Amino acid sequence: MSSPFQPPSGPAEHVERVLCVLAHPDDVDFGSAGTVATWTAAGTEVTYLIVTDGDAGGFDDTPRQQMGPLRQAEQRAAAAAVGVTDVRFLGYPDGRLELTLDLRRDISRVIRQVRPQRVLTSSPERFWDRIGASHPDHMTVGESTLRAVYPDARNPFAFPELLAGEGLEAWTVAEVWLGASPRTDHAVDVTDVLDRKLAALRCHVSQVSHMENLDEFLTGWMRQTAERLGLPAGRLAEAFHVVHTA
Q: Is Nucleotidyltransferase tagged as a keyword (predicted)?
């Protein structure tokens, strides 16, 4: 048995439940849909928690009041493409996320509801080599989620209304996977589920329909990731920084 002062050297081989917490519809699909597809294929139950409806996104003249519901529908379709049926939205304003106690409480609530052994979210650190990954909303959600994982969700005295008012017992998450991190240390080979990842991304019509070379861009990006992290030639990978939090 590992000492509490010596965390495991790598992620768990299999977990029963995963919670993915991301800022916008399509965030999980660009960075992690292949990984999610491997998890659901192995029998893991995956829940998506999307903090905004993505109402500030899009590249056409879709009325703003229609964009949020449209992007929710796109995300549900994308989730289904990789075997996810539980998709939840918090409805915070797109592009205006701040690190607040309300957001920490709302993420903690879902952690206690889902009781995941693993949480996937965005890195709270700015990625200077790929600045597009460090949207302020991404960083805010990453930091808020980490604070919800530790200490909020596991502390029965944090946000006491969750326990006393809603009956949600404290829950300890064992590991957190951070996407778009400058400290990447773990690769997932997604070569064999590429078609499912691409199918998920194509569901986000409002966001990707203008991208003529989407497939080539993604496969090239994932091929470089695989090579950088030591996978065999020709393989495709998604990459994460795995943090042990139990």
A: no
